[in-house]
């Protein structure tokens, strides 16, 4: 048991150090989040904007700048966690593969990735919630942070998928950016008049946007939206594990992989006969 804990702790520490060494990601967390949500709040009119909650049918009318600030926070949190996990997976792919080929358990490496993702998502979500607080106090700040955390976990898993499958860094960056832009842009009623369309409900951040607006401007429950977000994370996490398994598979020939494997059947019998007959 201690050995498994030591392996897990070592892998987790390695991933956290990799995130901490990503100075560009740290820059985005410290400066990009407050800058982006402040610009959203300051440059969008505060005219009431109708927003329909699909779970209850209730129509809220929050100020447009506050509603845009929520979508901006979701956009910033998801992009940053997605970039962090993509960069760590893409840059450390060869090292992870060598570790697995040397005997390091895949399970411990995968659990370490999930743990580092959870810690990074929690920190970024809490920071984004705190940054929005001076502009307007949300009705349910803890739930708002939980919603941001769930969506960040989903995009972090997407980052692992892109980092494991795509061969060039620019491809992963573009895929992550376009996924987030399309997803978040269609969630805002200011940018999309068809925000209630059936297609939008199948986007990764639909439940997060619904839950964030609910938590920010009402006292209603967000449990139904959190369950949808949990389903999204579970799906992307399973795909990320499959992609990670594919990335770290042993591509060496079987003869090289198993140096202690028995000789072919014919050679084995020949060797036995020679050993029995001293001539």
TrEMBL record:
Listed transmembrane segments: 24-44, 70-93, 114-136, 142-166, 173-191, 224-244
Region (Disordered): 255-279
The entry's keywords: Membrane, Transmembrane, Transmembrane helix
Keyword Transmembrane helix: yes
The UniProt record lists the keyword Transmembrane: yes
Top-rank taxon, per record: Bacteria
UniProt feature, compositional bias: Basic and acidic residues: 264-279
Annotated protein name in UniProt: ABC transporter permease
Species per Swiss-Prot/TrEMBL record: Streptomyces bugieae
